[in-house]
Amino acid sequence: MDRGSRFFYALEKRRGAKKHVTCLLAEDGTPLTDPAEMCQRARAFYATLFSPDPTDPNACRVLWDGLPTVSTGDRDRLELPLTLAEFSEALRHMPTNKSPGLDGLTVEFYRVFWDVLGPDLVTVWAEALQSGVLPLSCRRAVLALLPKRGDLRDLRNWRPVSLLSTDYKIVAKAISMRLGSVLADVVHPDQTYTVPGRTIFDNLYLVRDLLELGCRDGLSFALLSLDQEKAFDRMDHGYLLGTLRAFGFGPLFVGFLQVLYASAECLVRLNWTLTEPVSFGRGVRQGCPLSGQLYTLAIEPFLCLLRKRLTGLVLRELGLRLVLSAYADDVLLVVQDPGDLARVEACQAVYSAASSARVNWVKSSGLVV
């Protein structure tokens, strides 16, 4: 083990200082510096963010129409009960040296005592499926705030990450490993996030090749980057579960996810002080092994709608039509027909009505080639 040094302690001090909040802006823009008032503001902000808004069933039907579905064999396989062997495999693949949940029990702890704890976790999960809800210790998370760019007095410029208990993450990881085996069957190749065999380099290479092609052949087009505001945190649970059903996932598998999110809540951590609980009524929990895959599935109907309605860039010599490239919520659109701009706005309106998503047009950007 490396010996502690002045450099090491200074580095840790600087890292901690970045996460220390000295001032927050109230909803009306008033600066708050009192610790109690800042905690109240943080709790109120996330209580509002995680509260569901009404969604439009007609918009959902538009998005769900004609989606690809998993095969009957995969659907049946995903419906099987989770086993001790799957939990063991999930634990083996989980990273170590990660922050635990409220109980303080780490991945390393579970690995040491797995012979004792593993069978008990199978029993707890079976009882949760019967009751429809996990024990409070599993469904309650600590919400840690990580700084992003911008004015850090504004809570919108912090990324909320859920510190979940390891037993919850083992179950979620086991489900995630099942889900990963079928993602490529229902998610279009131009979305690369969390899909096995695809990487962000696929997106980068596409943009590079497009720019090179435009310069070489004198093509005129534009690249439009959409910025989804609080993308993971605004996702409506009803829309998410309905999307899974539209992709052909069976009732038992969808039920697994319903149990994981039923009566979920979090305590916001601000300068090591925990707020009162906040209900997690919408959003996918950043920090959950399943969150990325669930978001990929949730945004895919929107991307399908864009592929249907936009002209994109037609490369006749290659027999290709390029419409978009996506990595999670980072969606890059290829626009040649000016009419596509209005179509993008119309598609976004449908997606927002169905899922509570919200595009930030101010932060969205474009590049004319």
TrEMBL record:
PROSITE patterns: RT_POL. CDD domains: RT_nLTR_like (cd01650). Pfam families: RVT_1. Residues 127-369 form the Reverse transcriptase domain. It comes from the Eukaryota. This is Reverse transcriptase domain-containing protein. The lineage of its organism: Eukaryota, Metazoa, Chordata, Craniata, Vertebrata.
